[in-house]
């Protein structure tokens, strides 16, 4: 389970040090790809990636939306095994897509992580929370 919000800095080579509490879960391997919804990156443990990849691959080949999703996810995907210091090298191509330069927000979203440019995180998540985009009805549907 991936929970929490962390502010980190990429090193001069573009390496991200994975927060210590997530290293064991990601040590067997992980995949980083672009989000098809937002200008951020998705980080999934290899087992979760395999589940998602299977579901995407099962989508109809003739559906243009399915084709776009497959292209967006699979063409950008990079697989990693973190080094002994818990670091992964995020390619310049992926950093450019997510507009990540040096500062980075790592957001746990239960079964995977998201990597964000801090300004985009603030605009897309924090400011929308303040504006009330998540209404009471949506939360009430959870029957908490």
SSE inventory with pairings:
Blueprint: E1 2-9, E2 15-17, H1 20-26, E3 30-34, E4 41-45, H2 46-57, H3 64-74, E5 78-80, E6 87-89, H4 92-97, E7 103-110, E8 113-116, H5 118-131, H6 136-140
Antiparallel strand pairs: 1-7, 2-6, 3-4, 3-5, 4-8, 7-8
Question: Could you walk me through the main structural features you see in this protein, from its secondary elements to its overall organization?
Answer:
There is one protein chain. With 144 residues, the chain is α+β, with helices and mostly antiparallel strands. The protein has one domain (2-140): Chemotaxis protein chec (3-Layer(aba) Sandwich). Helices cover 38% and strands 27% of the residues. It is built from 6 helices and 8 strands, in the order ββαββααββαββαα. It has helices at residues 20-26, 46-57, 64-74, 92-97, 118-131, 136-140, and strands spanning 2-9, 15-17, 30-34, 41-45, 78-80, 87-89, 103-110, 113-116. The strands form 2 sheets. Strands 1-7-8-4-3-5 form a 6-stranded antiparallel β-sheet. Strands 2-6 form a two-stranded antiparallel sheet. The protein is globular, with a radius of gyration of 16 Å. It starts with a strand and ends with a helix.
């Amino acid at each position: 389970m991936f929970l929490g919000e962390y502010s980190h800095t990429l090193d001069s080579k573009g390496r991200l040090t994975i927060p210590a509490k997530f290293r064991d879960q990601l040590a067997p391997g992980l995949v980083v790809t672009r989000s098809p919804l937002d200008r951020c990156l998705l980080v999934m443990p290899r087992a979760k990636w395999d589940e998602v990849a299977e579901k995407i691959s099962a989508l109809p080949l003739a559906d243009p939306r399915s084709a776009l999703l497959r292209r967006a996810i699979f063409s950008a995907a990079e697989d990693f095994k973190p080094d002994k210091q818990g670091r992964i090298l995020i390619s310049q191509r992926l950093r450019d897509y997510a507009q990540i330069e040096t500062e980075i927000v790592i957001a746990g979203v239960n079964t995977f992580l998201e990597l964000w440019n801090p300004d985009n995180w603030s605009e897309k998540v924090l400011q929308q929370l303040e504006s009330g985009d998540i209404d009471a009805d949506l939360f009430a549907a959870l029957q908490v």
